[in-house]
Specification:
The protein is an all-alpha fold and about 190 residues long. The chain folds into 2 domains: about 50 residues, Homeodomain-like (Arc Repressor Mutant, subunit A); about 130 residues, Orthogonal Bundle (Tetracycline Repressor, domain 2), CATH 1.10.357.10. About 75% of the residues lie in helices and about 0% in strands. The chain is built from 9 helices and no strands. Helix 5 packs antiparallel against helix 7. The longest helix is centred in the first third of the chain and has 24 residues. The chain is elongated. It starts with a helix and ends with a helix.
Amino acid sequence: MAREKELQDKRRRIMAVALGLLAERGFHGAPIAAIAKEAGIGVGTIYRYFKDKDSLIHAIFRELHDRYQQQLLAEFDPDRPLPKRFSQIFSFLLRMFITAPAEFRFMELYYYSPYATASAARLPAEEGLILQTLQEAREQGLCKNVPMQALEAMAWGPVVALAKEHSNRHLAVNDEIIAQTVRASWDAIRNS
């Protein structure tokens, strides 16, 4: 049991160090050797846990994705009116991105890279709550009648832009700015 915990701790350490370096340097700027050095382990140790760097990157994404999904679902109230559900989802995700800028940078790198070609690469809850909320808004005539990908892009635009400003330029963000940004996301998709 102690050995298993030690192995899990080492795996988590590798993933945490890799997340930080990959978010800072990009996928090509953080070789396995740099990750091993930063983690204080040998390169071969990483390969005991991950087949290759791609497997490590996918594992980090999956862990973040699953954690965000679980936390979002735990707080989600499906009985709220649709605009309030939209606000709840995007406020939650924006707070997560603001709280953990390295995770946000990693998720964005992943999402806009060749790693994200599979449907499993969608951001947390997109295949569920976000997509369902946008589809429901469209069915109720509350949002613009554009292709779903365009609608998603419009909804995500202000949220991602603010998260980038915080992550890259250290913009101070408070609850009022988060609320205004999420309102801007809703305004971007709603029918005028």
